[in-house]
Amino acid sequence: MTQETLLSVKNLSHSFDGHKAINNINFEISRGEVVALLGVNGAGKSTTLNIITGNLTPDKGDVYICDHNVFKQPKSAKYNLGYLPDIPPLYRELTVYEFLKFAARIHGVTKHEIENKVQSIVETCGLTSVEKKLIANLSKGYRQRVGIAQAIIHNPALVILDEPTVGLDPVQMQDIRALLTELSKNHSVLLSTHLLNEAESTCDRVLIIDHGNLLLDQSLENLKQSPSKRVKLRFNGNPPIEDLKTLPGCESVSCSQYGKYICSYSDTEFIQQLQTRSLKNDWQLYEISTLGSSLEQVFLDLVMRDST
Amino acid sequence: MIWTITQNELKRIWVSPIAWILFSVALLVLGLLLLILLNNFYSELQAQLVGLERAPGLTDLVIAPYMFWVGVVGILLVPLFAVRSNTEERQSGSHVLLNSAPVSATQVVLGKYFALAFSAFIFTLICSSYALLLGYFTAIDYGKTAAAVLAVFLFISSFCAAALFIASLTRVPIIATAAILGLLLLFVMLYMSGSASASSSELFLYLSNFPHLTNLLTGSIDTQHLAYFLLTMVLFLILCIRKLSHER
After folding, report:
1. Cβ burial B96-124 (10 Å sphere, 16+ → b, else e)
2. Residue A121 burial by Cβ neighbours in a 10 Å radius (0-12, 13-18, 19+)
3. Contact list, B96 vs chain A (CB under 8 Å)
4. Closest Cα in chain B to A152
5. Number of Cβ pairs < 8 A linking chain A and chain B
6. Could you list the residue range(s) of the whole structural domain that residue B193 is in?
7. B-chain residues within 8 Å CB-CB of A143?
8. DSSP 8-state assignment for residue A129
9. Which of A96, A99, A101, A102 to mutate to test the interface with B (most CBs of B within 10 A)?
10. ipTM for the predicted complex
11. Is B4 in contact with A102 (Cβ distance < 8 A)?
12. Which residues of A fall within a CB distance of 8 Å from B104?
């Protein structure tokens, strides 16, 4: 049985003043999945999330949330979306209760449901003690909780969180991660972070993005089970991805920068054929290295700038 | 949804002590101004009017100029509220809440505008009550006074639309405030240069909002002036909606 696709990102590209922030990003998230979007600062994570949530119009590509196009049917798409950006969008002059009530109303919660929803979200997010306080007077940890609360108050199918633990102390970080684990029981979550342990402890699948290119889209389970079936290739030339994909046993190919490719394969014949094809087409292959098995090793292998 | 946004904006505007302080100072200044105008009327003007046929009364010589100053003080308060409602929100990043919610740009802009216009309405009403109090002590022309109240409300609320649009162009409050005051200065310059005897210009006078206010303050409700205020409002609101839609 195929799982329902909640988020579908197709051929997304965007440039800022001629600089390509993201380049042809494609991925999907199914119901019940918790996916981490990993990348170093400036990799293109926030740009991707801003486009998905309708805060930025891309140069190219489409985003579908529950089969609704975010740019053509924004209202229907956004009913199914909860978003916490890197800076929580809070009104400092309101109390936590007033703010959550407003967040519920603009997300379409009906008047007679509001009281119950606010009370339940206040309890879920551990905000009972600060419910009547002004948001301006809250600690950063509590503000982050209020930010998460506004993202889930309307019980959206998809929750997108952009670096929810950044700037928090270790205790606050632990609290927010516990909240994320709780959240993942009822929602599909796309979590942007550059903290690998956070991704490992809370997510099912990882997307690694660097220089605006999506380099890896794999479940954590597969990542740990098949370390030897993934290689980093370096060429002096720049062979077309389509040619690499036609090699026997090739499962996926992504290009992170000129001449640098990440390939997954199922058959060792792939390596033999790769060498033969490289000689024949003068691709000048000079490195084949196996990627590590831990998320940290994979991440470093993928995003390390020219290490040779 | 528009009403939800309006309620929230009103709460955000009026929860701030700065808004209350400025509002109180404005009322105090206008109260003093009314006293000066009254004093001038009783001590100087009244004696000069004796014997004149169809002489102007208290409404023309006290209430109309007083309401003109209500309009001027009112639009001087507009930048604070518009910048708070729009620019500060963009600076703090809280506008993302509305951008990510199932709310259209039109609903956001109208919600914010109605909050500003409602504040302008309350301000006009409270300030007008000073003038209406005079009705207990002497005869005033209620028709002319009502026209003046409408004129001042349209004058302030149309400027609110322009200020809201300007406030959506930048994330820096000081730049937005300066730009809104710049627009106000432009209106004053157009009025002054358009009405100067050496360089009078019908176009300049039509473009500035001041002549439309002064004409309505005479008590004649001319659709030409009403249309000017309504068109200004609609034009700037459309520009603001387009700006917000373009960002999304």
Report:
1. bbbbbbbbbbbbbbbbbbbbbbbbbeebb
2. buried
3. 53, 55, 83, 85, 87, 89
4. B101
5. 75
6. 2-247
7. none
8. G
9. A102
10. 0.80
11. yes
12. 74-75
Predicted structure pTM score: 0.81
- Structural domains in chain A, CATH included, are 5-210 (3.40.50.300), 226-303 (3.30.70)
Which amino acid is residue B242, in one-letter code? R
Instruction: Say which residues have a Cβ less than 8 Å from residue A181's Cβ, sequence separation at least 6.
Output: A201, A202
Q: Which residues contact B33 (CB under 8 A, 6 or more apart)?
A: B66, B69
A87 min Cα distance to partner chain B (Å) = 7
In this structure, are residues B83 and B147 in contact, taking their beta carbons and an 8 Å threshold? no
Report whether A266 contacts A245 (CB < 8 A): no
Helices (H), chain A: 45-52, 74-78, 96-106, 111-124, 140-152, 170-183, 196-202, 220-225, 241-245, 269-281, 295-303
How many structural domains does chain B have?
1
Q: What is the pLDDT of residues A236-290, one digit of tens each?
A: 877 888 888 888 888 777 776 677 787 878 777 888 888 888 888 888 888 888 7
pLDDT digits (tens, 9 = 90+) for A43-88: 888 899 999 998 888 889 999 998 899 888 888 889 989 999 988 9
Interface of chain B toward chain A, CB-CB under 8 angstroms: 1, 4-5, 8, 11-12, 15-16, 92-104, 246-248
Question: Which of B15, B96, B247 lies nearest to residue A89, judging by beta carbons?
Answer: B96
Distance of alpha carbon A306 from alpha carbon A301, whole angstroms = 10
In A, which residues are within 8 Å of B95 by CB distance? 89
- Its sign, for the CA torsion B167, B168, B171, B175, is negative
For A96, B112, B229, the CA distances from A134, given in Å and listed in that order, are: 6, 22, 39
Nearest to A140 by CA among A148, B48, A132, A235: A148
Tokens of B53: 């046929």
- Residue B164 to chain A, least CA–CA distance (Å): 19
Choose among A179, A182, A154, A184: nearest CA to A168: A179
Q: Do B216 and B151 meet the contact criterion of CB atoms below 8 Å apart?
A: yes
